[in-house]
Specification:
The protein has a five-stranded antiparallel β-sheet with strand order 5-4-1-2-7. It has a two-stranded parallel sheet with strand order 3-6. 8% of the residues are buried. It has six helices and seven strands. The longest helix has 40 residues. Strand 1 and strand 2 form a beta hairpin. It is elongated and about 95 Å long. The protein is an alpha+beta fold.
């Protein structure tokens, strides 16, 4: 039985055609699934990027630090060589996670990202700018809002000597009036 390799290949493909068709179909389905996942992943990545850019508003770059920095750093950056060629301005600020409540105490929202910017952006004293999502969660803007922030503590809360009462661990402040804006310092996540 003298067969050429080509004839043997053809006979082998014909004999195992069901298994070969299943393997080809499996590869086609796997390729379609992987291609779809890549397309969806790219679309989600683009959507998340657009959402982040809309939330940032006027912000191009941010310096994020796990501890507080000297506010004069912003002034030193603004005076550095080449700053004006790349940027319009620099603004110092602090961002903390806390809570918000309507002053009547009926509605409360946890997980609010609270940002306080330096006085370069005019928001009258006693007022806050909140985004539409937080305004809706609080039952509308216009009235007063009470913000709660974690108080600075010298010792970790889990330690024996840590202060544990609510007044020792939470700082609150109230604003008399709130305005809704798309790009603002207060973001509800």
């Amino acid at each position: 039985m003298n067969c050429s390799p080509f004839k043997l290949l053809i006979r082998n493909l014909r004999y195992f055609r069901a298994a070969n068709l299943a393997a080809v179909a499996g590869m086609a389905v796997a390729t379609a699934v992987l291609t779809g996942a890549l397309m969806v992943g790219d679309s989600v990545r683009g959507s998340l990027r657009d959402l982040a850019e809309r939330r940032l508003g006027f912000v191009d770059h941010a310096l994020v630090s796990p501890r507080f920095l000297d506010q004069k750093l912003a002034d030193r950056l603004a005076e550095s060589a080449g700053f004006r060629e790349r940027f319009e301005s620099v603004t110092s600020g602090v961002t903390l996670r806390g809570g918000a409540a309507h002053v009547d105490g009926n509605t409360r929202v946890a997980g609010v990202q609270i940002t306080a910017l330096s006085d370069r952006y005019p928001v009258p004293a006693g007022e806050a700018m909140i985004n539409p999502t937080l305004a809706e969660a609080l039952g509308g803007a216009g009235g007063g809002v009470r913000f709660s922030l974690p108080a600075p503590d010298e010792a970790p809360r889990e330690s024996t000597l840590a202060r544990r009462s609510r007044s020792d661990t939470i700082t609150t402040f109230t604003v008399d009036k709130s305005q809704t804006t798309q790009a603002c310092g207060f973001h509800y996540l």
